[in-house]
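Um, can you check?
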Amino acid sequence: MRDAIWRALVRVLDVLPWTRRTSPGRHTFQHLADRAEPVPLVICAARTPLPVHVLARSVPSPWGHRVPPYLRDWIGEQEERERQHERRAAVAAATLGLDLPFTFDGSDVARVGVPA
């Protein structure tokens, strides 16, 4: 019954131009169609795809501080990619007048932008 009353009220209010909704409602197709970008997958075994953030969280935990040799190279590559991304973001921010610190080996710099 509430749905029928609600639909009737919405139809009456849609007749008045100043009461129309400017954005899609919570249960409409347009709202449900807006999705976040897909999570990148890493294939760990023949049939076991895992999201990168799940793998990064669970890499050291099963073995304590030790990392297995088959993941050591991959982790190094991921860390280097992250450093490259930070450096590229710092260069792009510098063109906009922002000082964006980036990390390098032996540095514990917080990634915070400061207007120049």
In short: Confidence is low (pLDDT under 50) at residues 110-114. Residues 39-108 form one domain. Helices lie at 2-15, 29-33, 52-58, 69-95. Strands lie at 41-45, 48-51, 98-99, 114-115.
